[in-house]
Amino acid sequence: MLRLVSLLSALSLYSPLASAQTELRPEWEIGAGFAAIDFPVYRGSADRRSYLLPIPYFVYNGEVLQINRERVRGLIFRSDSFELDISVNGSVPANSSESAARRGMPDLDATLELGPSLNYHFYYSEDKKTNFDLRLPLRSVTASNFSRFQNAGWLFQPQLNLDIRDIARSGWNLGLVGSMIFSDQRYNQYFYDVPVQYATLARPAYTANGGYAGTQFIAALSKRHDGLWMGGFVKWDDLTAAVFADSPLVEDKQYFTIGFAATWVLDKSDKMVEVSYD
How many domains does the chain have? Predict the structure, then answer.
């Protein structure tokens, strides 16, 4: 994939915006399926997890709130060029006994990231199957094990997003995302600090600073046929120049995460609503 700098240079080539294509879809759909994923215990960990799990499927196409496979979207403002919505992300809990680098340290709780995202639509193709967007999500982070809650800082993740739908009339959709991550000191300390009481000869004490937190590139393919949706993704994470790259908890500075999912629609709304492709 192109590096983010190359993608930024492409912004000077965008064409005038066209209106987003819309279609009628059920207001809601529910179903179930499975997902297989292989990923590190936390960003930078050399230890990995692999799961095959049942997953629920839920899509809701409201005027303000929209929920689909890609994201939860709370639409605040929208025009032909700009939209302001709610960005949601997070991380799964990490048991320190599963990580050689963190062994003996406190576990990492799951995190919830929530905040606004300003999005700008740079380009729509004439057939409206290709679009190129800039998204600027700023998210506050809360860490929790459901018995305690902790403010874990904030993240800013500017990203360029290219979507190509129905490639060569095959029904397959391709998504490419390049992003840079910036996080404050509180967030980086939560994941990468080594307090003095947990320091060892192999794991010296370390205090993380805030700032640049790495680059991510994602390529995803998906297809829907009748009531079956299937998709997969590959994510490349590069922590080489991150401000916390020297932490003894960062073992792998470049690595892949991969996943695949399939879901079946079991029921859907009789009410149809107009939904934008973007």
Answer: 1
Q: How far apart are the first and last CA of the chain?
A: 22
d(CA 274, CA 125): 20
Domain-embedded: residue 234: yes
Domain of 192, CATH number, reads: 2.40.160
DSSP, collapsed to helix, strand or coil, labels residue 258 as strand
Phi, psi for residue 188 in degrees, rounded to 5: -65, -35
List of residues 6+ apart from 268 with CB closer than 8 A: 26, 28, 29, 30
Beta bridge partner(s), residue 228: 225, 264
Q: Could you tell me if residue 17 is inside a domain?
A: no
Assess if residue 198 is contained within a domain: yes
Determine the average pLDDT of the residues in 55-60: 84
Q: Report yes or no: 45 and 252 within 8 Å, Cβ to Cβ.
A: yes
Buried b (16+ CB within 10 A) or exposed e, 24-35: eebebbebebeb
pTM recorded for the entire structure: 0.82
- In the chain, what percentage of residues exceed pLDDT 90? 63
> What range does the domain containing 237 cover?
4-11+34-269
